[in-house]
């Protein structure tokens, strides 16, 4: 079942409330032909600095490439520092929602493959696949990759 299920709620309401679970961030630092490396939510529990700065638990969450962690890498594979904050992910939701609304209201295709944009923080995004109501969004945070 896609984003628009057979419920009695208005379509756009269903979409907005469920959209987050249909967005998959794909790390853009790897060969997409080898399969998608999906970014996963993590808590920055080890960072006391972040906790004292932000306080809010949800603001301590971020999406990171699984290949940042040694257990997910093959021998000799470099670590991947690509990650985005929860606020960035919310920005992705907002951006896709804005582009989906006209399609939903006019009942046309919701396939947004090819949609590209850059966030205010300079993160590059591109919808690379739409399948069964799910959006695969390639993401590259150049700032994270350059910063040591
Ligand atoms: Zn990666």
DSSP strand (E) fraction?
15-25%
Report Rg. Answer: 17 Å
User: In which order are the strands of the major sheet placed?
Assistant: 1-7-6-5
Structural class: alpha+beta
Let me know the largest β-sheet. 4 strands, mixed
Note the topology.
Blueprint lengths: L10 H8 L4 E5 L12 E4 L4 H7 L6 E4 L18 E3 H21 L9 E3 L4 E9 L2 E8 H5 L2
Parallel strand pairs: 1-7
Antiparallel strand pairs: 2-3, 3-4, 5-6, 6-7
Helix pairs in contact: 1-3
Bound molecules: zinc ion (ZN).
Characterization of the model:
By secondary structure, the chain is of the alpha+beta class. The protein has one domain (11-146). It is 28% helix and 24% strand. The protein has four helices and seven strands. The protein has helices at 11-18, 48-54, 86-106, 142-146, and strands at residues 23-27, 40-43, 61-64, 83-85, 116-118, 123-131, 134-141. Strands 1-7-6-5 form a four-stranded mixed beta sheet. Strand 6 and strand 7 (134-141) form a beta hairpin. It is globular and about 50 Å long. The protein starts with 10 loop residues before the first helix and ends with a helix. The mean pLDDT is 81. It binds zinc ion (ZN). Zinc ion is lined by residues 27, 29-30, 37, 65, 67, 80, 82.
Question: What is this structure, in a nutshell?
Answer:
With 148 residues, this protein is of the alpha+beta class. The chain contains 4 helices and 7 strands; from the N terminus they run H-E-E-H-E-E-H-E-E-E-H.
